[in-house]
């Protein structure tokens, strides 16, 4: 099937607007890209895993950081703030996996590193990539596809 955002052009505009709004805070672009990569890995969206890994590489990120995203807890390549963002991204992506979807410890750690505007940006960014992943995975959009 054609990606739904190509069938319903206003959906493409809306998703691009959401992504742009999410990135309008002082949250580092690298943080957005790291969570986009991790969420895409969790959701099995090959198109987005490929795209966000390439974007990180093109932005000058070291290969170790890109490869390490899937095992960020065990990897020494991430700051405490990035770890907090990745933990929050995992919880928000896997809402149904536990009785307390976003434990206070995860939220408190993120709030210790990010102000309210940055947290809002982070949550919107996590939500946006989850939408993209679900559309791409449901319609089996492969890595390298050009819709």
Structural write-up:
With 147 residues, the protein is an all-alpha fold. It has 8 helices and no strands. It has a single domain, classed as AhpD-like, CATH 1.20.1290.
Give a quick summary of the entry.
The protein is mainly alpha-helical and 147 residues long. It has 8 helices and no strands.
Largest sheet: none
Specify the CATH class: Mainly Alpha
Mass-distribution shape: globular
Question: Under the CATH scheme, which architecture would be assigned?
Answer: Up-down Bundle
Percent of residues in helices comes to 55-70%
Number of strands: 0
The CATH H-level homologous superfamily:
AhpD-like
Structural class: mainly alpha
Q: What average pLDDT do the residues reach?
A: 94
**What pattern of helices and strands is seen along the backbone?**
HHHHHHHH
Q: Proportion of β residues?
A: under 5%
Fold-level CATH name: AhpD-like
Give the end-to-end Cα distance, rounded to a whole number of Å.
10 Å
Keywords: Oxidoreductase, Peroxidase
Domain Carboxymuconolactone decarboxylase-like: 9-90
Organism: Saccharomonospora amisosensis
GO molecular function: peroxiredoxin activity
